[in-house]
Amino acid sequence: MNIDNSADERLNPANGASSENEAFLRLYSKHQRDLFKFIFTLVPNHADADDILQDSSVILWQKFGEFSIGTNFFHWASRVAYNKVRDFRKKAARNRLRFWTDDLIDAIAETQFAERESLVQQRDLLVGCMRELAPNDRELVRQYFSKRLTIKAVAEFIGRPSNTVYKALNRIRKTLMDCVVRAQQRGNQARRQL
To answer: Hey, which residues does 12 pair with through a beta bridge?
Structure first.
């Protein structure tokens, strides 16, 4: 799932989006695939998930004026979709071959919300840790991960042996992982003190 919720949700119709409609279309287009994946985890049938996505899309379009630009669009949209799933389940309750209970769907949805929030938090911590890297290390990470180059291609680009680049990337990976873990621990300690 795409977990970047920051840049596009800060659209300002006065600065870049010509209208509220354009802002909606940008945000919806960015998150449509993830929204479908979310819905499909809650209903056992692809066609049902597609129908629920369509119904949800209409409601999202109609209620976009209630959405606060700058907040998390996916979170807002997934709550709308979750309510459509619940409506679907109520209608499907008449079917005797019902394999999923409302409690199971609620548990799956809550897990999805929690996992997504955790990924967003981890991404934010990683971005902070990336800022702490030396400029050369940041560039190496950018070359390898952002451009999706092979180690050999990165080595050729920066003029270093492949083995050296491999070792440097492993060292950077460990540094970033340690930094994220420390930041999570600091956050947990701060929450406990409240």
So the answer is: 15, 16
* Neighbouring C-alpha atoms within 13 Å toward the C-beta of 96: 0
| Arithmetic mean of pLDDT, 83-93 | 83
CA distance 180 to 125: 6
Contacts of 114 (CB under 8 A, 6+ apart): none
Question: Are the beta carbons of 10 and 69 closer than 8 angstroms?
Answer: yes
User: Which of the 8 DSSP states describes residue 16?
Assistant: B
Q: Which of 62, 63, 53, 48 is nearest to 31 (CA)?
A: 53
Residue with tokens 């870049």: 16
Q: How far apart are CA 131 and CA 96, in angstroms?
A: 56
pLDDT recorded at residue 11: 44
Residue 58 pLDDT greater than 90, yes or no = yes
Torsion angle of C-alpha atoms 128, 130, 132, 136, degrees rounded to 10: -160
